[in-house]
User: Which sequence fits this backbone?
């Protein structure tokens, strides 16, 4: 019988399924065109989700424990070859579009206000039009 993996201490659940490891998080970010990661019940994650829904995208929402650390999450999602630097000044919620880190809610809002968000969502395959 297979032994269950211990869950990452900062990760608890997703909107669609339970997440048990950072590999599951990495897989979700790679498979889903838009992913919002934030603490459980976070109003700012809700704002990010609503903004994306308003643009026509349907983001996957991953909830982390209240003591979750965005820097630890980004470190866990860093490529194995260390080819890219990890931003450590990102706060929850964290938004991934097209498998790449966009940033926090501030970056999402800035792209929306600049009119660049819809284009990015189209290139990521999150919008059909």
Assistant:
């Amino acid at each position: 019988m297979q032994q269950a993996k211990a869950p990452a201490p900062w990760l608890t659940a997703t909107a669609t399924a339970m997440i048990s490891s950072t590999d599951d998080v990495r897989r979700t970010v790679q498979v889903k065109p838009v992913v919002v990661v934030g603490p459980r019940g976070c109003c700012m994650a809700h704002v990010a989700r609503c903004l994306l829904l308003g643009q026509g995208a349907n983001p996957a929402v991953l909830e982390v424990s209240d003591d979750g650390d965005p820097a630890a999450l980004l470190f866990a999602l860093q490529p194995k070859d260390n080819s890219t630097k990890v931003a450590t000044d990102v706060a929850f919620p964290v938004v991934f579009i097209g498998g790449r880190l966009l940033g926090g809610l501030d970056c999402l809002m800035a792209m929306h206000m600049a009119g660049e968000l819809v284009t990015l969502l189209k290139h990521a395959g999150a919008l059909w039009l």
User: Anything to note?
Assistant: Confidence is low (pLDDT under 50) at residues 4-20.
